[in-house]
Every structure is written in C-alpha cells, then in structure tokens.
Specification:
Blueprint (H helix, E strand, L loop, with lengths): L2 H21 L6 H8 L6 H4 L3 H24 L6 H21 L4 H12 L1 H28 L8 H22 L3 H14 L2
C-alpha cells in the first residue's frame, strides 16, 4: 500500500478514536469521522470494506499503540520488574483519570457496546485484552523472578484479576467523575504485588 494511502487511513483511524472516545461507536457516523479527518466523504470504501471492518481496524490500531506503550515500559533496563508493573498501572491511572475520569481507553468506553454490536470488533477486543494480560503476566513473573514483588497466586491469575479490577474501577470512576475507585485499585494493586 503506498505511504500516502497508509497515512490517510491512519489519520481516519486516529480521528475516529478521538471522536468515538467522546461519543461511543454507534453514535458516530462515518461522515462525521471523514469530515473531521479532512477526507472526501465518498472515499470511505477506498480504505475500509465496511463500517464493521473500519471498527475492527480502529480497535487494532488502538491496541497496537497500547502494546507499544506497555513494551516501552517493560524494556527499561534500569528499572526492576516491580517498577515496570507499577509504572504501567500509573499510566493506566493517568489515562483513566484524565478529563474528569472520562478516560482514554477504548476497552472501557466500548467494551459492552461492541460486544453486542459487532462480532469482529468483539473478537479484536478479546484478543487485544488477552495480549494486555499476557504482557502483565510477564511483568509480574519477571518481578517474582527478580524478587522485586511477590504474589499469592500465579502471575497469570494475578494479572487477570488486576486487569479486571482496573477495568471495573475505570468504569465506576467514569460514572462518578472522580478517581476514588482508581485510587482504591492502586492501593489494592500494591497490596496484591507486595510493593
């Protein structure tokens, strides 16, 4: 695919992410996204086969960016694995506490909505969240191995429980417009990891 075509496609996806985070997926029309991206309205199908394919591509793009952030955090050789894990949770906290807890996580924003709306988007989100948990499991296992943290369960079960807790805390913080639940999630995370 030529570079300009890829750039335009990414501009559409990035623009869509910003709008969808504010409004939800079903409330956003393709025309709105293309107009905000400065792309001719009739050219949508040049980049995407359908709105479903567009939604799936938007979620994949979101997860690719998210994985890059997690991988950057985990690659800091000068820090312990416990510092990596806690830096990740601080990133999660900061992202979700932003803008009066309206957050920037498409999983929190769209999880329930797309599960009923699109099998392709649900499958992409399922795969993406599993890959997040895989990365968390590795960070936790590395922390157990280097002695910088300890857990009472397996690294996998701990990663799953913490991620689930943070998603729930993010949703309640969003409803309340206050980070109290995120503060509680951070405290429970520290106790769970013994850091």
């Amino acid at each position: 695919m030529p570079a300009s075509k890829m750039d335009t496609r990414q501009v559409i996806l990035d623009t869509a992410r910003r709008i969808v985070l504010a409004k939800g997926y079903a409330a956003v029309g393709i025309t709105e996204v293309l107009s905000a991206a400065g792309v001719p309205k009739g050219s949508f199908y040049h980049w995407f086969e359908s709105k479903d394919a567009f939604g799936e591509a938007m979620m994949k793009s979101y997860f690719d960016d998210y994985f890059a952030t997690m991988d950057r955090i985990a690659a800091q050789a000068e820090k312990s694995a416990a510092e990596h894990v806690m830096e990740y949770w601080q990133y999660f906290y900061d992202t979700q506490a932003a803008d009066h807890c309206q957050g920037g996580c498409l999983v929190v924003k769209l999880g329930a909505e797309i599960a009923d709306l699109s099998d392709a988007m649900r499958a992409t989100t399922k795969s993406g969240t599993a890959a997040i948990v895989d990365r968390l499991e590795k960070m936790i296992a590395d922390g157990v191995a280097d002695g910088s943290l300890s857990v009472d369960d397996t690294p996998r079960a701990t990663a799953e429980a913490l991620y689930d807790m943070w998603l729930g805390a993010s949703m309640i913080a969003k409803i309340h417009g206050h980070p109290r639940q995120l503060d509680r999630a951070m405290a429970v995370t520290r106790r769970t990891l013994h850091v």
